[in-house]
Design brief:
The protein is mainly alpha-helical and 109 residues long. Helix content is 84%, strand content 0%. Helix 1 packs antiparallel against helix 2.
């Protein structure tokens, strides 16, 4: 029970930091890439953890969906790098991550 609450807390913190970093980048604040990368790192950690624990999942379908989620989270890494480089292409990679995550949320449920 406490483990699930901790995971949810980390996910919420990561999501809030990622969205705040994206909004700050649009506003032109200099610290935006750092905030975005911190939130993205939390989300990537949770995806990596779920893939690591996927060996305990019985169905191949869930393992495949978890792997797809982790691969999609690499789009956050690319977005972070592009933010630091000053390119506006980070938006496209963030959109790819959001669409794949939205698809997986309906598919896994």
């Amino acid at each position: 029970m406490a483990k699930e609450k901790t995971i949810r807390f980390i996910l919420v913190c990561g999501a809030v930091l990622t969205v705040a970093g994206a909004v700050m980048q649009i506003a032109g604040l200099a610290c935006a890439p750092y905030v975005f990368t911190t939130g993205a790192a939390l989300i990537i950690y949770l995806h990596l953890r779920s893939v690591w624990e996927a060996s305990y999942v019985d169905t191949a379908r869930m393992r495949r969906l978890l792997r797809i989620g982790f691969i999609a989270s690499t789009m956050l890494v690319i977005s972070s790098c592009l933010m630091f480089l000053g390119s506006n292409s980070w938006v496209a990679f963030l959109l790819i991550y959001a669409v794949v995550t939205l698809y997986l949320s309906f598919r896994a449920g």
